[in-house]
């Protein structure tokens, strides 16, 4: 019995050391990955299509480097620590025209950037919500307060939707504000007006304005 106990003790000690070694051996980068994926899981697991496939894809620190940004833009947001930059498609709130933009996330704000211009700045402290659909599209709506500073909610299509939303809600510290919606979504167009977006399933992924003036995401 004595030997059994000893070997059991040794096995426990060995196991503990292995776990400790594993945790210590985790690079800072790997730790960040795991922390981010835990948030992704809390927000999306069992709610959005494509979540399981996203598990095996490591998040990148950023999709574009700071040096990829126009110097004018860098000048405008100087003093703010840039954390994440990704190309996005932004849909106009009125005619739903698709436009190529960059989403820049800093320590304190999200910026929608067109080449050398900042089109919209959203301070995290004012963020009212982040919405995505339960389907496999990459649409993200950033809901902003109704004030003169904001033109309305921001409608974006992101290629790496899980990564982008995770970065946004961690930086903004607003994990609880992410909603995964089914069917349709309301967004603010500005000056008290609202618009509707409809999510459906079809053979061809597409985003268009339907006859009733709604943005339809297939």
Automatic annotation (TrEMBL):
GO cellular-component term (any): myosin complex
GO MF entry, a single one: cytoskeletal motor activity
One Pfam match: Myosin_TH1
All copies of domain TH1, residue ranges: 48-218
InterPro entries named in the record: Myosin_TH1
Protein name: MYO1H protein
Organism: Helopsaltes ochotensis (Middendorff's grasshopper-warbler)
Encoding gene, per UniProt annotation: Myo1h
């Amino acid at each position: 019995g004595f030997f059994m106990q000893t070997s059991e003790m040794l096995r426990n000690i060995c196991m503990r050391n292995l776990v400790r070694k594993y945790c210590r051996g985790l690079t800072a980068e790997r730790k960040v990955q795991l922390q981010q994926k835990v948030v992704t899981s809390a927000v999306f697991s069992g709610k959005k299509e494509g979540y399981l496939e996203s598990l095996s894809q490591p998040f990148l620190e950023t999709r574009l480097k700071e040096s990829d940004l126009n110097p004018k833009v860098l000048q405008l947001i100087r003093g703010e620590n840039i954390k994440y930059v990704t190309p996005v498609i932004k849909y106009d709130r009125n005619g739903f025209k698709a436009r190529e933009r960059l989403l820049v996330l800093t320590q304190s704000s999200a910026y929608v950037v067109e080449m050398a211009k900042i089109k919209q700045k959203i301070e995290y402290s004012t963020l009212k919500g982040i919405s995505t659909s339960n389907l496999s599209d990459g649409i993200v709506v950033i809901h902003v307060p109704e004030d003169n500073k904001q033109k309305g909610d921001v409608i974006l299509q992101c290629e790496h939707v899980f990564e982008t939303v995770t970065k946004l809600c961690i930086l903004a510290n607003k994990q609880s504000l992410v909603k995964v919606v089914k069917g349709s979504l309301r967004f603010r167009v500005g000056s008290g007006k609202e618009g509707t977006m409809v999510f459906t399933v079809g053979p061809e992924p597409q985003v268009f304005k339907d006859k009733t003036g709604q943005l339809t995401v297939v």
